[in-house]
Every structure is written in structure tokens, then in C-alpha cells.
Write a structure and sequence with these properties.
The complex is a heterodimer of chains A (14) and B (264). By secondary structure, chain A is an alpha+beta fold. Chain A has one helix at 7-12; one strand at residues 2-4. In chain B, helix 1 packs antiparallel against helix 4 (216-226) and helix 3 (147-158) runs antiparallel to helix 4. The chains are: A alpha+beta (14), B alpha+beta (264).
Chain lengths: 14, 264
């Protein structure tokens, strides 16, 4: 069950 | 003043056409060296960053650094109205920083068409990610492949499902998907060299095996742009968005940063 990541959140969560 | 001229059907026009399915509005920063464009797709999955160096145009002039928001879809619509052989000029004057003027001049110079396109606010389309592409060492794997092959892979896989899993290790680079009707796995045995040959798949950088799941809709958009160029470079990391890059002449580039799918 993969969900699409949001680019901004993905970047902020690094 | 900012002014550039190009022939109809030039690489800029091709790129603008190819990014349309993701991008409505873009922020453009101009300097004497060329211009860069950044845009974020409405679903916040893809960030597009490109740099067109001045030398790819017939003529290019930028007296002072400037930034403007451009409605790309409207601009492409206007550019489509040009005829074969036309010379296209795109101009913004300091006196009127509200419009961009686009001019078509017929090859025999007997017909000129002038159009004004209003500039828009595109500040929200900036993302502070410029450091990503300076950090090749942050990607766990980087490989190059012919862009036609990349497009073919994306098309073949999308017959089966919406997602692709890209796996890279020392021995193999694979694109695979599994859907209700079956599965597809495309494997490439990579060359390992710093100077990739145009016709082959080359692993240029490897720090450890990595795999990412990506939505094929966005990958097909990246592939569409890449087919304007011979080769595409793809960087994978579990900590960064996937990077898809094509080089424009010596110093220019077009880069897509694609958020992967994640297990929640």
C-alpha cells in the first residue's frame, strides 16, 4: 500500500 | 530589458510544449548568462527546474537580473500560432514590466505579428531546493540511459499498472511493475564508466543498492521532455526525490524532482 508523497513534505521530513 | 530571439521549433518551444501536462505557471529568473525556470505541479509531486544558457538562442540580451511569472500554457498557445520559418522574439521592457511581448517575423520579413501576454504572480512556484542537484554524492545511485529507452520502459510498464519500481544495484538496473493483469520486469545490465556512451545504459555513481516506487504518470511526463535529448540521467536516493536530468548544450539542464511513493 504505497501512497504518493508530497514533494514539500518529503523535503521537510529529510 | 530582456530580449531573446529563436527560430520556430527551437528547443525552448519543444521543452515548453513537453512540460505543459504538469505545469501551468512558472517562475522565470533572467540574467545575462541565461534564464532559469522553476515550477511545481499542482499536486506537489514534481518540481521542475531548468536553465537555458544564452548561447542556445539566436540572440539573447538581459541588461539587469529580473524575475517574472509566466502562464506557460498561454505562452505555448501563442507560440503555436507561429508559421514555419518564423523568427520568434520574446521581450520584456523595463518601462512595462507587466507584459511580455512575443513577435513573429516571417522569413521574407514581410509579415510581423506582435502579441502581449500578461505576467502573473508565480512566487509560490519557487522551492528552495537548489542545493539538491549540487549534491551528487547524496544520491545512492546515478545512471544514464538513452531517453528513447526510458520512454519505452515507462510506456511498457504503464500498460500493466500505475506505478513503477526502479531498482539499482551493481549488476542490474530494473524497471518493474505488477498489476491485476500481470507483471513486467525490464532489466538493463549497466556499463560502469564516467563517460556514458549514447546508446547504452551506464551506472555512473553507486554507493549502495536502492529502490524507489514512482507513479508512472509523472515518469511519463519526464520521459516526454527527455525525448528531446539523446540521454537522460536518473538519480535515486531514499532520502531525496528522484532526479531526472537532461543536459541543454554545455551548461544548461532540465531537471525533474519527483516525490516517490511511500508506505504509510
Amino acid at each position: 500500500n504505497k501512497h504518493q508523497a508530497d514533494l514539500e513534505k518529503f523535503y521537510n521530513n529529510r | 530589458m530582456f530580449e531573446l530571439t529563436m527560430a520556430k521549433g527551437s528547443i525552448l518551444q519543444g521543452v515548453l510544449e513537453a512540460i505543459l501536462d504538469l505545469v501551468n505557471v512558472a517562475n522565470v529568473d533572467c540574467s545575462s548568462k541565461g534564464f532559469s525556470l522553476q515550477a511545481l505541479d499542482t499536486e506537489h509531486v514534481v518540481f521542475l527546474s531548468l536553465f537555458f544558457p544564452s548561447e542556445v538562442f539566436r540572440s539573447y540580451r538581459c541588461d539587469e537580473d529580473c524575475s517574472m511569472g509566466i502562464a506557460i500554457a498561454d505562452m505555448v498557445d501563442l507560440l503555436r500560432a507561429s508559421n514555419d520559418g518564423d523568427i520568434i522574439t520574446i521581450k520584456v521592457t523595463d518601462q512595462n514590466f507587466e507584459d511580455i511581448t512575443i513577435t513573429f517575423e516571417s522569413p521574407d520579413k514581410t509579415k510581423t505579428t506582435d502579441m502581449d501576454l500578461q505576467l502573473v504572480d508565480a512566487r509560490s512556484h519557487r522551492l528552495k531546493i537548489s542545493e539538491w542537484h549540487d549534491m551528487e554524492s547524496e544520491y545512492q545511485a546515478i545512471f544514464c540511459m538513452p531517453s528513447a529507452q526510458f520512454m519505452l520502459n515507462c510506456k511498457s510498464l504503464s500498460v500493466i499498472d500505475d506505478d513503477v519500481v526502479i531498482r539499482v544495484n551493481e549488476e542490474v538496473i530494473s524497471f518493474s511493475t505488477k498489476g491485476k493483469s500481470g507483471c513486467v520486469n525490464i532489466s538493463h545490465v549497466p556499463n560502469k564508466t564516467d563517460n556514458p556512451e549514447k546508446a547504452s545504459v551506464t551506472l555512473t555513481h553507486m554507493r549502495g543498492p536502492v529502490s524507489l516506487t514512482l507513479n508512472l504518470r509523472y515518469m511519463k511526463s519526464c520521459a516526454k521532455v527527455s525525448t528531446l535529448f539523446d540521454q537522460v540521467k536518473i538519480g535515486l536516493s531514499t532520502k531525496l526525490p528522484l532526479m531526472v536530468e537532461c543536459k541543454i548544450a554545455e551548461k544548461g539542464y532540465i531537471r525533474y524532482f519527483v516525490a516517490p511513493k511511500i508506505t504509510e
